[in-house]
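[Solved] Which block belongs to which protein?

Original post:
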Amino acid sequence: MSLARQHIPVLGVDATPLKVDDLLEVLAGFVADGTKRTVVGHNLHSVTLTHSDAGFRSVYEESDVVLLDGAPVLWLWSRTGNAVGPVMEYRLGSTDWLPSLGKVAGLKRIAVVGAGAEANALAVEKLRSIVPGATVAGLPGEGWNDDVETAAVRWLAEQQPQLVLLGLGMPLQESVLQRQLDTLPPAIYCTVGGAIDQLAGIQKLAPRWLGRLGLEWAWRLLLHPRRVAYRVFGEPWVLLWLLARRRLRRVS
């Protein structure tokens, strides 16, 4: 499976367009080779941070896989004409592929880092049913600070997982990878944002038909207006300014 990056028009970032089965094949290969890998995903929030934060940008530039997560990013990539089959099959938010982890050959040890204690425990139980026979351990991410981070690194070294689902929210989860990746044990580190809450059933998923229409933002805005309003109404203008500034610098 080719992991060649493709450029996203207008946004000035690169991604690794994959469908669910493609990603599962890639993960199986990563499990087999046993080395340290990272899997992240691009949406408009991550694109904004890529253009405004050098540390965040380095995480994405050095990641092994950068999924298309977010309708605007997907639509702009579709202009390249590189999609094979329905374009929406390339949109891979975490909850699009986590339910299929049972198909990843050789996956026996999973760690779930993030969310509150209840959500973490429920997500661990859910993953045990998704990947029968696998050892799944969890570490909540409430009150994350330097001490918790140091303890998490030690815990992961003890667990020796093959796959780590890091759900601390963006950009904290990426900052942790930037700081600690060199000290973490070999595993596949996947940034999954709020997917732990969703996997646990604590946070409701948007109906899939809304996702196909690119309207999941409206669902999240309805459920969490204070948390989502800035991303929906404010951040796109920040991104436009960043892109315009980038273009002007390239012209001058």
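(Second protein starts here: sequence line, then its structure tokens.)
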Amino acid sequence: MPLPLIRLATSPVNGTAHFGVLLGTETMTACATHSPDLQPVPDASAHTMCQSCARALLALTTEPHPGEPEARTATGRGRGQVRHRPVPGHLLAYCGNSLGKRRPDPTLSRCTLCARLSDAIDALRRRAGELLLPAAEPCHGDDILFWAPDGLGDLVTGHRRNAATGKGFCDRPLAAPTREHRTSAHRAGSTGSWPS
């Protein structure tokens, strides 16, 4: 039976909440935070969400888009580039960096923080088995083109356009397609695994 991904925190009323599962009396979080005091907390509590867990939830609930690269470079990083793992359907790396459109040189080293969160998500899947996840947001389904939101205030998320309304499926006004979001046919047999 699938285990539900729930919010866990050390305090029942405030503090930082993490996404995770209950494994009997043990808890396991998506960001690998360990504490014997973690306990389930309701969704409508005053907790602040762990940013790593929020990115892990995006990665768990969003299918990769066709042709999406397995690694990208971060924006504005100059010569100190490393390979980042993108959250599917987003211009956001597992480590939280905003991503540019360039595919990195395969000889560059992997981002340590991206690798750490990726390993934590893999460990959660191995230990918990099948997870009962919340539904993905409507803009992150398979499509061949992403759109930038009007005003370009949020360049982290690529949106799918509803041709009937001209807005995103999340009802956000959209400006135009973005070149870095153009995708091609998905490679046959791709597993979506993090490149070594």
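Accepted answer:
You had them paired correctly. Confirming on the second one: The radius of gyration is 18 Å.
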